[in-house]
Design goal:
Layout lengths: L5 E5 L23 E6 L3 E7 L3 H10 L5 H9 L2
Antiparallel strand pairs: 1-3, 2-3
Helix pairs in contact: 1-2
Amino acid sequence: MAGRDTLSLPLPKGKKSFVNVGSTGQPRDGDNRACYAVLEESQVTWHRVPYDYRSTMKKILDTGVLSEVLARRLAVGK
């Protein structure tokens, strides 16, 4: 979904589905935007929205305890 603002997929009728709703922070898919999902009866739609990851990076670095790697990951989405 990296690079797209939304992605909708149909849910299989009469079957169970596992849906990863996304996250804010520590992304792993190369997209540094926040992600959330809207679950409807027949489909799930993921939405990507920008957030101030630079502010969060600064807070991580300012702790003096957390790894710089955790801060950098927010910018690159990996």
